[in-house]
Design goal:
4-stranded parallel sheet; mainly alpha; globular; single chain; 2 domains; 4 strands
């Protein structure tokens, strides 16, 4: 029996954590329908996903990754499974995607097995804002390299996402649009894409599983704006040291449902989304002009040999 490999490559901020938790919770049920959602490496921190496997590829340990795939294929055959389904947003990371492409080709030509990839697309403004929130939560100074210019960061983010999508398109990935998939149906839809079978009984939770990780993010956003950029979110006024220290103290004392806090957060979100939209628009204009320039260069090269 030929075993099909399916790689759900994420990327980040497309409901991957919810999908992985749902897949892990339904492992026994999936086995009954011939789908193996295998356990990850022993001792891995993230046991519901296959992030530990992406780490092998990132560290150049492709042979270890390949050995694991061979063992997993044998396990699938022993259990009468037609599909091995893997999921980690780490598969879409730049350091991982290139060795992953080599593995995919080896599966297709060396194993002579079918290999499918699923890359969930999300609208750029929504993905960028969500990523910014997570980055600010985890690393307050992540914008330092962009001189705290959110518009410049959004321009870079859009270029990165475009390159990422094109890379997986060349590998033959299926690219469903997140906004068109109701959250309860997300896991079932990905399984259907990977296996050509229906899983109506598998339901993804309404709320994002990762949302709890960023419960304190509003305070992080506002304090970051005040401490690092020295700008008060409310009204966008420049803050003197005395003002922003007092404002940080005020923020620390506020509750998330406080009216004043909500007003500050709303102003910050509006400003952040505006800057992100401008950065994405900058990228689109640059990409259009670059594309036109490339077409003109190709046309010129065709005409040159005809010149007297």
């Amino acid at each position: 029996m030929s075993v099909r490999f399916v790689f759900h490559v994420g990327p980040h901020k497309t409901g991957t954590t919810s999908v992985q938790v749902t897949l892990h919770a339904n492992r026994d049920r999936l086995l009954r329908d011939g789908v193996l959602y295998p356990p990850t490496l022993p001792g891995a921190e993230h046991f519901t996903s296959h992030a530990a496997l992406t780490s092998l590829l990132a560290r150049g340990k492709t042979s270890e990754f390949w050995d694991w795939l061979q063992e997993t294929r044998q396990t699938a055959e022993d259990r009468g499974c037609h599909t091995v389904f893997l999921s980690s947003e780490g598969f879409s990371a730049k350091r991982v995607s290139v060795p992953l492409a080599q593995v995919v080709r080896r599966i297709r030509h060396g194993m002579r097995s079918e290999c499918r990839l699923i890359y969930m697309k999300r609208s750029l403004p929504a993905a960028a804002y969500s990523m910014m929130v997570q980055r600010l939560h985890n690393q307050a100074g992540f914008l330092h390299g962009f001189e705290h210019d959110l518009r410049a960061w959004a321009r870079m983010f859009a270029a990165q996402k475009q390159g990422e999508e094109q890379f997986f398109q060349r590998l033959g990935a299926v690219l469903p649009q997140l906004e068109t998939v109701p959250r309860p149906e997300m896991t079932a839809r990905l399984l259907a894409i990977g296996t050509d079978r229906s899983f109506p009984d598998i339901v993804t939770g309404e709320e994002g599983v990762s949302a709890a990780k960023f419960a304190g993010t509003p305070a992080v956003l506002l304090s970051y704006t005040l401490r690092v950029m020295e700008i008060v979110a409310h009204g966008g006024t420049m803050a003197s040291p005395q003002t922003h220290l007092a404002a940080v103290a005020l923020i620390a004392s506020l509750k998330l449902d406080d009216e004043a806090f909500a007003a500050l957060l709303c102003d910050f979100e509006v400003a952040a989304r505006r800057e992100i939209a401008l950065g994405i628009e900058d990228h689109a204009q640059t990409a259009t002009s670059d594309g036109l320039f490339d077409r003109l260069k190709r046309a010129f090269r065709m005409l040159v040999p005809l010149a007297p």
